[in-house]
Amino acid sequence: MADVAPAQTGANPQSPVPLDSIPISPEGALNGTVAVKSEKPAHSETDLVTVFHNPDNFNVKHPLMNHWTLWFTKPPSGKGDNWNDLLKEVITFETVEEFWGIYNNITLTSELALKSDYHLFKKGVRPEWEDPQNKHGGKWSYSFKEKKSIPIDSLWLHVMLAAIGETLEDDGDGEVMGVVVNVRKAFFRIGLWTRTVGKSVPGGGDGNNAGGKGRTTEQGKDVLMKIGKRFKEAIGLGDTEQVEFSGHMDAAHAGSTRAKAKFTI
Amino acid sequence: PVEPAQPTAGMQALKSARLLQVKEIDSVKYPNGILSPNPAVNNISKSQGIQYSKDFLMQFQDVFKEKPSLDWDAKVKETIGDGSDSA
């Protein structure tokens, strides 16, 4: 392909020429002796320009199915501060691009002080079991006890991506409320909170939705087990490790030592 | 007076860009070498939104690094701290 401007005068191509002397529309294009293709025109109004095309001048962004809020639990100061002062809402976002802007400019989990948590929850749900949308629910969780040898930053990233990418549950499951990472002295723990423990809940309606009477206990359990399996894959666990599901109420009433897992996978 | 910080081009693009619609996702011509959202998981006719695979999402990691706001660093320091303060 002769995509170069036609030789006009036999000038030495090595010698510099003033920019304004270079023809914008070579004559060769007019008389048809040389096929000169103009460069692709600048993006027109209707082009879908993503951040991959031009990170400084894109015109479409990738929507998430849900709006998500990032929360942070500060470590206690030791001066009798209460939970409400420690749990901080950081930011709410609704696009893939915003997620990465936040993730790329926030402290990594591996650099947090002990007793910190990150929580990534659907907008409008506080990451507390007392929240009306959590109080009948539970969580899948796994504690990584070899703190030094596990890549906690990528595991937490992957579980957040599975949440915002909506690959932890299927359309209509309606169970996933949020994901959480806890930084503790002896372990990192990653959890996934669900709306129900597989049963209908007060005010859950009659339909086949999370907490609805139209979803049998058997179906509810199947949905939770499927989500647990995907959660386990997202945090890179093999067949020999087990993730455990427990209801928030059970844990609250029984005390952590007596709370036994309802399901494992 | 101190010049106020100016948003970067990327921050402005994020602000002014519109949300892709579900039905448009097939029309996006991603540059060579960029995976599109896995079509196998997206039934566009019935889906309320777009599902994104981990591999699709990871591609943004080095592409979009703009801070969410001009006062972001101060906000992070205030809410999260620098991570060095021990409990």
Summarize this structure briefly.
With 265 residues, chain A is α+β, with helices and mostly antiparallel strands.
Which key terms come to mind for this protein?
heterodimer; A: 265 residues; alpha+beta; RNA Cap, Translation Initiation Factor Eif4e; 9 strands; 21% helix; 21% strand; B: 87 residues; mainly alpha; 24% helix; 2% strand
Radius of gyration of chain A: 28 Å
* Poorly predicted ranges of chain A: 4-13, 26-36
Shape assignment of chain B: elongated
Question: How many beta-strand segments of chain B?
Answer: 1
Q: Using only CA atoms, what is the Rg of chain B?
A: 18 Å
Structural class of chain B: mainly alpha
CATH topology of chain A: RNA Cap, Translation Initiation Factor Eif4e
Using a beta-carbon cutoff below 8 angstroms, give the protein chain pair with the largest interface and the number of residues from each chain: A-B, 57 and 52 residues
Assembly of the depicted chains = heterodimer
Pfam family, one (chain A): IF4E
Subunit structure (chain A): eIF4F is a multi-subunit complex, the composition of which varies with external and internal environmental conditions. It is composed of at least eIF4A, eIF4E and eIF4G. eIF4E is also known to interact with other partners.
Organism (chain A): Aulographum hederae CBS 113979
Region (Disordered) (chain A): 1-21
